[in-house]
Amino acid sequence: MSASNVASPLARRRRRAALLFLAPACLMFTAYVIYPIVRSVLLSFYNWDGVGPSSFVGLANYRELFHSDTFYTALGNNLLWLALTLLAPPAGLAFALYLNQAMRGIRLAKSLFFAPFVIPGVVVGLVFSWFYDPAFGLLKVLVGHGIPVLGNEHMATFGIIAAALWVQIPFCMILFLTGLTGINPEVIEAGRLEGARGWSLLWHVVLPQLRPATFMAVTLTIIGALRSFDLISVMTGGGPFDSSTVLAYFMYDQAIKYFRYGYSAAIAVVLFLIMLVFIAYQLRRLLRTDH
């Protein structure tokens, strides 16, 4: 019997075992990710209140959406969230480089820096709401007078994003700390022997080895910025005058308050497509740099 005949049944058994191990994950992914996406796309072409029969309306939900002032306010706020929360990866990298040292008390410092990330979003929203309170908040004590941050339509979104950054920066810091522990010290030493110091060493030696951590930090920050909901719900409820609403909260508002599930699904589809564009762009950049 030839070696190829022996290897063939063994290869088939390995493929069968791999498929059996993958099957539960594939089924769950289909049930909890693929099916909801397809169902939302189909629902966006219908008018449905969640109880009675649905009626097909074609692109009417999308036409109404693109003629809505609230939609453009929410989209602009999402882009503002995206621009400002992308400060989290470089800030997280800076903290990670600082904390990646063998010094006394560094474990305690790491725990304190990471603490905001493990606090639930609702609690973070309440804490920052108290912080901004113009009557008794800590901001009033620091500044000397009350500032209605969350009551001002021009300041509310920035106040919420500051709370989001307080949580997102430690998360990015942990990703980069994990990447820094995996860097080969010999590569760093070789870079120093070649004359790389300071910024040159960071840019040409350290950052290329942190590419996977950078990809995860940027991608998860983008996803978090585009699907931001909990802080807005707790701190402003989309107000004042819908000035701080985003697409995720706008979608929730239309479905839960007004029972417009088809219209809400249309918002969800638009949000999904925006996220898909950003994630595909980041993934393409990562794959291109790997080659």
UniProtKB/TrEMBL annotation:
What sections of the protein cross the membrane? 17-38, 79-99, 111-132, 158-180, 201-226, 261-281
Matching entries from PROSITE patterns are given as: ABC_TM1
Q: Where is the ABC transmembrane type-1 domain?
A: 74-282
Tagged with keyword Transmembrane helix: yes
Alphabetized Pfam families for the sequence? BPD_transp_1
Q: How does it sit in the membrane?
A: Multi-pass membrane protein
**Main localization of the protein described in the UniProt heading:** membrane
Keywords, sorted A to Z:
Cell membrane, Membrane, Transmembrane, Transmembrane helix, Transport
Regions annotated as coiled coil: none
Where does the protein end up? Cell membrane
Q: Which family does it belong to?
A: Belongs to the binding-protein-dependent transport system permease family.
Stored PANTHER family: BLL4140 PROTEIN (PTHR43227), DIACETYLCHITOBIOSE UPTAKE SYSTEM PERMEASE PROTEIN DASB (PTHR43227:SF8)
This one is known as: ABC transporter permease
Source organism per UniProt: Paraburkholderia caffeinilytica
